[in-house]
Please model this.
Amino acid sequence: MSNTGRRVVVTGSVAYDYLMEFPGRFLDVMVPDRMHRLSVSFQVDAMRKVRGGCAPNIAYSLRLLGAEPLLLATAGADAGDYRDWLAAEGIDVTHLRVLPDVFTASFFCNTDTEQNQIASFYSGAMARAAELAIADVDRDGLACVVVSPNDPGAMAKYAGECRTLGIPFVYDPSQQVARLEGRELLACLEGAWIFIGNDYEFGIIEKKTGLREAELLARVPVLIVTHGGEGSTIALRGGSDEAPDGITTIRVPPAKVEATALDPTGVGDAYRAGLLAARLAGLPWAVAGRVGSIAAVYALESLGPQPPRYDLATFRARYEANFGTDDRALLARLG
Model:
């Protein structure tokens, strides 16, 4: 992909997250031979409501790292304050449509002491995301589009628009792999620049499509799998800038965690934003992956999916503390 600018259209859910903490392990109350009749309740010690949704999560960290995100998404009548906050953070909300007759999508998530999560999602205004169109966005200087979890019809529409308009796009089905059929996943994947998900999601994708990672890589130039505390892998198909022949796999280590209270909500979104911001700044894939790792731990160490604002000097210092000073000149391009 040629670097045409740092403007990014970010599509996906806009939501309020209701985050709960269970003071035990989910596995301790699961009975394997009775999973076919699962009936279990978890009494939680804490709950909080925070701003969330994949699209704002990604856009927020993109902005912190110097990119210029534009939200193309739908929210409900209760999202006026959220929209104003995003605008104050420097995110273009021109195409964030607030619908007066429906509530904003809601994410209900319970996390145990081992950072496992059980979640439910109410679509709300997100169900009408297909009313929006990428064609309505000013595409001057636009580098790419992020197709993140959203109404399935909207995801298919945006991927199709990107193919028609010749815009590079990141396909990130994430939580929606549970709902999408194999044929829908493969249809959206066609023509994508990057296909990204975590290792569990790729297990579902393999089951639904019948295709393993190597076979999926034959359909996209870049396939990225995140592995939680084990880091991530970036597979580049022959013909890309850093893999002219064959397949190159880059193993990206995780960054060190500096806090004891951890919240995994939104960590994947922050990783995506870090990696993408670095690529738009012209950084090599290996460095971009490590930038993603640093962005991810900032989210992991915060309560909620959008970490407290950090400056680029602090971010670069943390990168060097984890990965050394060899990339200092490259990191200067961020921002």
